[in-house]
Amino acid sequence: MAETASILSPDKKVIVPDVLAGCPMANMITAADVRRLKKEHPDAAVVGYVNTSAEVKAELDYCCTSTNAVAVVNALKDKKEIIFIPDKYLADYTSKQTGRKLISWNGYCPTHVKILPEDINRERKFHPFAKVMVHPECLSAVVALADVVLSTSQMGKYAKETEAKEFIVGTEVGIIYRLKKDNPGKEFYTASERAICPNMKRTTQEKILWALEEMKEEVRVPEDIRQRARKALDRMLEII
Ligand code: SF4
């Protein structure tokens, strides 16, 4: 995400409090892997999730988020083939929503795959009136059990706008704090206590303070990669 901020705002200084707080799913695919896929499918459009490195983004035709993946793929009606990387579960969900066969990669979020179908079934028994909302990075079997499939930002909006008072939440547990804070009259239950992302937890308040005091570590994307990656982000913004 820091690289994406730098790609979009090259004149601004972007710092990260912990350089090891990257996304493990993003590390599951390299730019060389994408180039190989493009060689195997020369006519395919390449769509990549925002959780990818700057080098990978430089190989994409379109970037997407979990909020707009379906809209981006739907906009590519004239493309015969679409490569969708790196998350195979987001690819599966997007494929089912759009009716498009997608060429996916064997990437996944190690945190979201810890939420199992039995977790959803168990929590439903405990909270029979709760709405089950899960992230599309979850296992396809978990997505199939949900009432709604939403990105993190969509979960915040849905919790506020729907009349339901209780929610079972299938995503990284950290969102529960925010949902409770924003919706004091409602109850939120995590689908699984195992859904903790160790990399996200590396960023602490102290580290943010130290990063601001020292203004480091700075993230800067080489200009040639930045310009190519920017095109994929711009094309996404043209669609949504
Ligand atoms: S929860 Fe962690 S591993 Fe999963 S997508 Fe987010 S940062 Fe990456």
Describe the fold and architecture:
By secondary structure, the protein is an alpha/beta fold. It has 2 domains: 127 residues, Rossmann fold; 85 residues, NadA-like (Rossmann fold), CATH 3.40.50. The protein is built from 11 helices and 8 strands. Strands 2-1-3-4 form a 4-stranded parallel β-sheet, with helices on both faces. Strands 6-5-7-8 form a 4-stranded parallel β-sheet, sandwiched between helices. Helix 8 packs parallel to helix 9. The longest helix is centred in the C-terminal third of the chain and has 17 residues. It is globular. The two termini are 19 Å apart. It binds iron/sulfur cluster (SF4). The site of iron/sulfur cluster (SF4) has 12 residues, from loops.
Q: Percent of residues in helical segments?
A: 40-55%
| CATH classification class of the largest domain | Alpha Beta
> Do you know the CATH architecture of the largest domain?
3-Layer(aba) Sandwich
The CATH topology of the largest domain corresponds to Rossmann fold
Total domain units: 2
Bound molecules: iron/sulfur cluster
What is the strand and helix layout of this fold?
Blueprint lengths: L1 H7 L22 H10 L4 E5 L4 H4 L4 E3 L4 H6 L7 E4 L2 H11 L3 E3 L12 H10 L4 E4 L5 H4 L4 E2 L2 H10 L4 E5 L4 H8 L4 E4 L14 H10 L8 H17 L1
Parallel strand pairs: 1-2, 1-3, 3-4, 5-6, 5-7, 7-8
Helix pairs in contact: 8-9
Iron/sulfur cluster binds next to loops.
